[in-house]
Amino acid sequence: MTDGNHRRPDTHDNEGFDDEARERAREHLRQRQQAEGRRSGPAHAASREKQDDAHPQARSAADIAARAAAGARYTADMASALPKSALAIAAAVVIAIAGFAAFQCTRPADEPAPEPIAAMTDVEAHEAEEAAAQPEPVRFEPTPEALDGVPAGSGLQTFALAGDDAPGLSDEQRSAIENAIDSAEEHGDVSLVFYNLETGKGVSYDADTTVYGASSFKAPYALYVCQTQVDTGKIGLDDPCQGTSAYDPGSYYNGGSYPLSDLIADAIAYSDNNAFGSLRDAFDSEGYDEWVDELGLDDVHYRADSWYPWYCARTSAKLWTEMYSYLQTPSEAAQMLNELTSQTEVSFIREALRTTGASVQDKAGWCADSDPLWNGVCDAGIVSLGGKTYVLSIMTGMPDGDTSYALYEDIASAVFDARDTLA
Question: How many CB atoms within 10 Å of residue 398?
Answer without folding.
Answer: 25
